[in-house]
């Protein structure tokens, strides 16, 4: 994915950034994107896209975009490819260790494009 800095919209709560086309995200899998100095992990489940901080909090490296996508009791999650902790795609909390979490960013879809709001 490419960093698209020129396509930014300001709102009262932060800036929306166009990240990629929805078609660029594979179904039931993750991808990494570089945006405003951050590595994001994007996950597509049907017509829903989730954006988390891409850095695994235990390892300190940007690998969450390569994690395994699944569910835990019906809740969509990603499992870190390194230490296997599961992070909720809805809010970034770790299901296996309450002391861990990753940032979660709002996502919107507009005319086939994925937009992420960074606050």
TrEMBL record:
UniProt keywords, alphabetically: 2Fe-2S, Iron, Iron-sulfur, Metal-binding, Nitrate assimilation, Oxidoreductase
Pfam families on file: Rieske_2
PROSITE patterns linked to this entry: NIRD (PS51300), RIESKE (PS51296)
Gene3D superfamilies: Rieske [2Fe-2S] iron-sulphur domain
InterPro entries registered for this protein in UniProt: NirD, Rieske-like_NirD, Rieske_2Fe-2S, Rieske_2Fe-2S_sf
Domain of life: Bacteria
GO terms for MF: 2 iron, 2 sulfur cluster binding; metal ion binding; nitrite reductase [NAD(P)H] activity
NCBIfam families: nirD_assim_sml
Identification of the protein by name: Nitrite reductase (NAD(P)H) small subunit
Species this chain originates from: Aeromonas taiwanensis
